[in-house]
Amino acid sequence: MDPAHVEPVVNDTLPSPDDHFTPPWMDLARCRSLTPSEFFPSDGVGVEVAKRVCAECAVKSECLDYALTHRIDHGVWGGCSERERRRILRSRRVGAL
Q1: Collapsed DSSP state (helix, strand, coil) of residue 80
Q2: H-type helices in 1-97, by residue range?
């Protein structure tokens, strides 16, 4: 098959990159000026460093709510690791029963 004759497949149900909405609180986040790799660490020491940055952030609760709402699986968000966010979600499910 000649690649020049292949029609691109467009999935209209997915948002385009232009549709991305950045919540206003993200502009106030303390991590905004740091590298993303600092909040996606590969070890426990890195998690603790990221959590210390979050501890003094003015939008910590908004960040955590965002991560929980969007089920973000990786990184430190709102001062919580992946494991801590899973525990929060699990406890919310149990509490809703």
Answers
A1: strand
A2: 44-55, 60-69, 82-96
pLDDT digits (tens, 9 = 90+) for 41-63: 988 899 999 999 999 999 999 99
At a CB cut-off of 8 Å and minimum separation 6, what does 82 contact? 73, 74, 75
Location of structure tokens 């990786």: 74
| Whole-Å CA distances, 73 to 1, 28, 58, 68, 87 | 39, 22, 22, 9, 12
The CA distance from 65 to 32, in Å, is 17
In the predicted structure, residue 13 carries a pLDDT above the cut 90: no
Note if the pTM is more than 0.90: no
The pLDDT-based confidence of 22 (bands split at 50, 70, 90) is confident
